[in-house]
Design goal:
alpha+beta; six-stranded parallel sheet; eight-stranded mixed sheet; disordered C terminus; globular
């Protein structure tokens, strides 16, 4: 047992969210300090100073260190943690180009295989020459060979990344990055830095690795020559499985020891935490060429982690890897880099939906991707969203961060007993691996461990993975009959589909007295790549299949809901249970049974930590209806607590609010102008999406005079004297004309982000019908930009460092207007809408259908708006709550006659008791909605509609001419997300419902069973 479960205690920074703070423009210390203060107010625990594409301040230059110093000092003053990120862009290891600039010895290399005639052979960078079938090594000099076909293996050098197997590379990287911070800022200041993040270091992705270190290391490790055996990387020659295991095992060992291990040791010596994640953690096959193996690296991190891109359900496999290694190494914190590519529509509910599932899988330290210093130019398309002060919901962000942090602490500091060990059989994948794209032999292995993991997860059985190298090095059979691996002991072992055992792992498993089960297809067994002896094969064949139902109990059981998952932590004064409905859009009604009787059960509010009594039957059972993506945090005690909540359903009536509401915009409405006609050097005008213009001009490779004409229409109801503003970036660089009138391009304010400047259009210049905005600029880039573009298509390190001197961006109209379209709105998946017509400005509607805001004048709105409902309560109620459903909005704030009565950001969206304000007679019920920036920033033209995986190309119609990737399929219509408050009502009760605490924990447990049974209310409404 461990410490007391203090649910209301202040949460330290170590459990609070720490964002990737994207330093992506010309940095100003004052602005950096301003943003740090906003982070403190939002309940963040610190920040990673992350150099990224768009950065104009020279990386690791004098101004850079001035900015870093200012941030460290401000973080210390505010009690925040200042973290470093070890690179500009990613992957880590190249030191902003300094390491790979040291010569070919330091650069990444990979093998190429081809069959050629002798006279076609390469004469440089030859790894080896072989007979066409690969069975005979012929040397490396083609001139000494007879005529005919030859299997040629050469290596290529990537000048833009590094050889992470070479220890000299890591020492150089440490010298130009980590040590440079100490040398420049001084040891005293650097000791105030919390730690450093390394991001996706990699051997090679998709190709067989080569390194000059391999020959000697292979000889030392195995007493064999590597070069004669290289064809077996691709060809199934005799002994190929054993060779691949030796080769990729050595790659994994060298990468882990020479890169991650050396950085981890440096950080420990200098008092820094070391966190980050490997690349391609998603399955066995992807790990082979990119890492050799993923799990051996985790032991070197003080906070191991993984990343998760997009809005897909988090992978049990991906997060169980670092969580297992952390527990076995005695580390209590596990990091997730999350929310990249979720798109601008990500809101608090979406973040909670994703992160709560990661918490179930052992994550307790959240690094959010991304918090952008600036949204200027391409920065707004950098794998959005940006979770930063430019978001309309930022003032409420602390609520979410407090909830995440409190739960992180409860899950990190409690004991998590795990009895089940699953073998992570990476060597089986090594034995079969021939090519990243040719994975039909490895795919069943990947599916087997993933499906086994899912089966244990949905049956509430805690489990860990056993990395084979760690198991071979430190696994032991303990005196109590358990298998000991580091700090953990296990009572049973499960083998997913397995082809190979390392000999040391096999020996340990055969000594283990506990049960060993198999899951998945059976294969002829290999030991270190060689056929297993008959007696070993017979032992393996005799292992029993994992039965169904499972032969061991989970931490609880659930009936009636297949989407509920759970985890548990044990404290000396109770047991914490955290349950999650993993269904994003469907409720889950569940009957839950705990594994042992308890005297009392409390529900904990994650935001405040406040407990409330929760009904428990027979000491073990309770019923709960989870809302979509809903969670339930409970504490079970052996001692009696406060009196349990009665499970009676009060008499209630749901009284609908009016079908129309008065609309009040709390900021301007918007119309994006993302298409224009453009002319180059006085030539003909060409219609184009604005996203295409810049890349077309860059292809010219010269300066030019650019003129762009943006058109918009006004409708019959639009008043021409309505004040209009143009929102644009860097207006001072353009000549601006509106309907033929020269307009001073002087900013008179900003909208959301400092980069979005407001320029007032002349009063009285707006025409009914067509209007034209004309921008003229001398477009060009410096020589360095064009040189960077030449490199950007060759490797991601270079594209991730791009920064332009001038960027051509869409415009926005801003004002108190409505926007109507000429087409029909069509519903799409994920709550999206598409219209294929054009748009025009109209009068802002005074009254509106609150459930259909986008379709009724606000398709591109972002920010805050209020919906006022005139309402009269029939008679005094003992209790009343305002309830609604939300689409598209992040959150809702409730008030009656201007007096606040609640805030909600997740289901159920309901106010506090507002019976005292809802007296008989007229009143105004207000719902204030806050949105994200999705309908302002897009992407608008994806054929799929609302994407769950949004990257820079999601905003493009044409290829960028630099990288080989094509943009996704395009649709000329405009896709937005539906926004509104639906089903708004007031639920009233004539009987006083017993109090259940404050905040979210006050919700009635049986709210799903509310019945409109109050005949007196109903009769008065009908009258």
């Amino acid at each position: 047992m461990i410490c007391s479960c203090k649910t209301t205690a202040p949460v330290p920074n170590e459990y609070r969210t720490v964002p990737f703070w994207s330093w992506n423009d010309e940095l100003e210390p004052d602005e950096l300090v301003r943003q740090i203060r906003a982070m403190k107010q939002a309940g963040l625990g610190g920040f990673f100073m992350h150099a990224r594409s768009g950065l104009k301040t020279p990386y690791m230059g004098e101004r850079w260190f001035e900015c870093v110093k200012a941030c460290i000092l401000e973080a210390e003053r505010l009690g925040l943690d200042a973290w470093l990120y070890d690179e500009i862009g990613w992957p880590s290891g190249f030191g902003g180009g300094e390491v790979n600039a040291s010569g070919d010895e330091f650069r990444q290399k990979f093998l190429r295989f081809r069959t050629v005639r002798r006279e076609e052979c390469a004469v440089e960078q030859v790894a080896g020459l072989y007979s066409p079938d690969g069975s005979r090594y012929l040397g490396s000099d083609p001139s000494e060979l007879p005529a005919g076909e030859i299997l040629e293996i050469t290596y290529e050098v990537n000048p833009f990344y590094v050889d992470v197997l070479n220890p000299a590379v890591t020492e150089k990287f440490l010298a130009v990055t980590h040590q440079r911070y100490f040398d420049t800022l001084g040891a005293g200041l650097c000791r105030r830095i919390k730690g450093i993040f390394t991001d996706e270091p990699q051997v090679v992705i998709g190709r067989p690795v080569w390194s000059p270190t391999l020959n000697a290391a292979y000889r030392r490790r195995y007493g064999r020559e590597l070069t004669p055996e290289l064809p077996m990387l691709r060809l199934d020659l005799p002994g190929a499985a054993a060779f691949r295991i030796r080769f990729y095992g050595l790659v994994a060992e060298l990468f882990s020891r020479n890169y991650t291990g050396r950085i981890g040791a440096w950080c420990r010596t200098h008092g820094w935490e070391f966190t980050g994640h490997q690349v391609q953690e998603i399955n066995y096959a992807e790990a082979v060429c990119s890492n050799g193996a993923v799990m051996p690296h985790y032991r070197h991190y003080t906070i191991p982690g993984a990343d998760w891109l997009g809005f897909a359900e988090p992978s049990v496999y991906v997060f169980t890897q670092p969580a297992s290694a952390a527990a076995q190494s005695g580390r209590k914190r596990v990091m997730a880099e999350a929310f990249a590519m979720c798109g601008w529509n990500l809101n608090f509910r979406g973040m909670k939906h994703l992160y709560s599932q990661m918490q179930l899988l052992g994550i307790n330290f959240l690094c959010t991707h991304l918090q952008s210093y600036s949204l200027r130019g391409m920065r707004k398309r950098d794998y959005p969203p940006s979770l930063a002060p430019h978001q309309p919901w930022w003032p409420d962000y602390r609520r979410l961060n407090d909830a995440f942090a409190r739960l992180n602490r409860l899950l990190a500091e409690g004991e998590n007993p795990v009895d089940t060990l699953v073998l992570h059989s990476q060597s089986s994948a090594w034995a079969l691996y021939r090519d990243r794209m040719e994975d039909e032999r490895i795919a069943p292995l990947c599916r087997s461990i993933e499906s086994l993991s899912e089966r244990l997860y949905r049956n509430f059985v805690p489990f860990h993975y056993a990395d084979e190298s760690m198991l071979a090095a430190s696994g032991a059979c303990a005196a109590d009959g358990t298998l000991q691996l580091g700090c953990c002991r296990y009572r049973q072992v499960i083998l997913p589909e397995t082809v190979n055992f390392p000999a040391a792992v096999l020996e340990l498993l055969r000594k283990f007295p506990g049960p060993i089960w198999r899951s998945g297809e059976r294969h002829a067994l290999l030991v270190d790549g060689e056929p297993a002896p008959a007696e070993t094969a017979a032992w393996f064949e005799a292992l029993p299949e994992l039965p169904d139902p499972l032969p061991f109990r989970g931490i609880l059981s659930v009936s009636g809901a297949g989407t509920v998952r759970a985890t548990r932590r044990i404290y000396d004064d109770g047991v914490i249970y955290f349950l999650v409905n993993t269904a994003e859009t469907a409720a889950a009604e569940a009957e839950i049974t705990l594994p042992e009787p308890f005297a009392s059960l409390e529900r904990i509010d994650p935001e405040t930590g406040e407990p409330d009594p929760f009904p428990l039957r027979d000491g073990t059972r309770f019923h709960y209806t989870f809302p979509p993506a809903g969670t339930l945090l409970l504490r079970a005690r052996k001692t009696a607590g406060a009196a349990p909540v009665p499970e009676t359903v009060p008499e209630t009536a749901a009284l609908p609010l009016p079908a129309e509401a008065r609309l009040r915009l709390l900021n301007d409405n918007f119309l994006p102008l993302d298409r224009a006609a453009y002319s180059v050097d006085g030539g003909a005008f060409i219609d184009a999406d604005v996203s295409s213009i810049q890349w077309r001009l860059l292809a010219l490779r010269r300066p030019c005079d650019l003129v762009m004409r943006f058109r918009f229409e006004t409708g019959e109801t639009f008043a021409p004297d309505t004040p209009l503003s143009l929102v644009m970036e860097e207006p001072e660089r353009y000549r601006l004309r509106f309907n033929g009138i020269d307009v001073p391009a002087q900013a008179c304010g900003t909208v959301f982000d400092r980069a979005f400047r407001r320029v007032a259009l002349p009063e009285g210049a707006v025409r009914r019908g067509g209007n034209t905005i004309e921008l003229a600029v001398r477009f060009g880039q410096g020589e360095q930009v064009y040189a960077d573009l030449d490199r950007a298509g060759r490797f991601e390190t270079e594209f991730n460092r791009l920064a332009f001197d001038l960027e051509i961006e869409p415009l926005f109209l801003a004002g108190k207007f409505g926007v109507s379209g000429t087409g029909e709105w069509r519903e799409l998946p994920h709550g999206a809408l598409r219209q294929s017509g054009s748009f025009r400005l109209e009068a802002l509607p005074e009254r509106i259908d609150p459930a259909r805001l986008a379709q009724n004048g606000l398709p591109f709105f972002a920010g805050k708006l209020a919906l006022d409902f005139a309402y009269e309560l029939p008679e005094t109620a003992a209790r009343a709550q305002i309830e609604t459903g939300l689409d598209g909005a992040n959150s809702v704030r409730f008030s009656v006659d201007g007096r606040a009565c609640g805030f909600a950001w997740c289901e159920p969206f309901e106010s506090r008791d507002c019976a005292a304000q809802l007296r008989p007679g007229g009143c105004t019920v207000t719902l204030e909605l806050t949105t994200s920036l999705r309908n302002l920033l897009g992407p608008f033209h994806l054929s799929e509609g609302e994407s769950r995986s949004v990257g820079p190309l999601s905003f493009s119609r044409e290829p960028n001419g630099v990288t080989p990737q094509e943009p996704p399929p395009y649709d000329a219509g405009y896709c937005v997300v539906a926004t509104g408050a639906r089903g708004s009502r007031i639920t009233v009760s004539q009987k006083l419902i017993p109090e259940q605490g404050t905040g979210k924990a006050r919700r009635r447990i049986c709210s799903d069973a509310r019945q409109d049974t109050m005949s007196s209310f109903r009769n008065k409404l009908q009258a």
